[in-house]
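User: Teach me something about this protein's shape.
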Amino acid sequence: MSDKPLLQIRDLQIGFDTPSGLLLAVRGIDLNINEGEITALVGESGCGKSLTAMSLLNLVEAPGRITAGQILFKNEDILKMGDERLNKMRGAEASIIFQEPMTALNPVFSVGTQIGEVFITHGNYSKKEAREKAIKLLAHVGIPEPQRRVDSYPFELSGGMRQRAMIAMALAMSPSLLIADEPTTALDVTIQSQILHLIKNLSHSNQMAVLLITHDIGIVSLVADKIAIMYAGLIMEFGETRKVLSKPKHPYTKGLLNSLPSVYVQQKNKKRLEPIPGKVPELREIPEGCVFSNRCTSYDKSCDTDIPVKSSGKHYYRCVK
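Assistant: First, the predicted structure itself:
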């Protein structure tokens, strides 16, 4: 692992244009992702995780748009890259694994053809060379009989194999950054474990930075080096996974952990699950001050002001308490 940031996100804001005006879904986040580290971005559905992931490759689609901030990849601002530079960067220097491989993979082309296209586009390989490399990659990600599976179509593969094929495609050019957006959704627990450990091993062996998008803290506790807790478009807490999960500082993080079975997180004297009261506010109903104030059991009037970011070493949290 390294303390050298490969990706630096600065005051990133993403909004949606609506008839009633601009609604911010990502409200100004700051995050560093280091070489050779897995950083998990965790939060409830709708908090802005996937939108943040798409923004890192400048893939936010209308009516959404990035309204402010910087995304520095190797000290180059992705948001200022021209189309030619972006196309060269995507898939070669930075890649993404989407949530659902059945919709991300093209159903009318074999997986070998789709993986090989990455080599042809970014590496100027011949079709024969690209096919040979695709076979090696399929073997590398643990697909059995890669010489046969290279000619399989997505519908002929199991969910686990399709996800492995997506990983193979994302890793084709040995990217410096891998964005994994819920990479184990809808997979059984055995396949989940295999895929997560594959990503972890590749990250550490290749010094590849990984942003793992998930809502599952159990997954995070197994593979992530650092964790960012996201709520209503803001990062509420960030630090080393072990420290954040064992000594959470923010009431929202504590609420998430209290709603988990203790098999995932070691907590003393834990007897029963405690759900977080209320629900995530809609974008047009975000409270003033702390965005979590309407659900926080520790709320007082000081929460209605601008909330400072506090730190304890390299453990950061956004709270007045």
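Now, about its shape. Residues 104-174 form one domain. Residues 189-206 form the longest helix (18 residues). If you'd like, I can walk through any region in more detail.
User: That's plenty for now, thanks!
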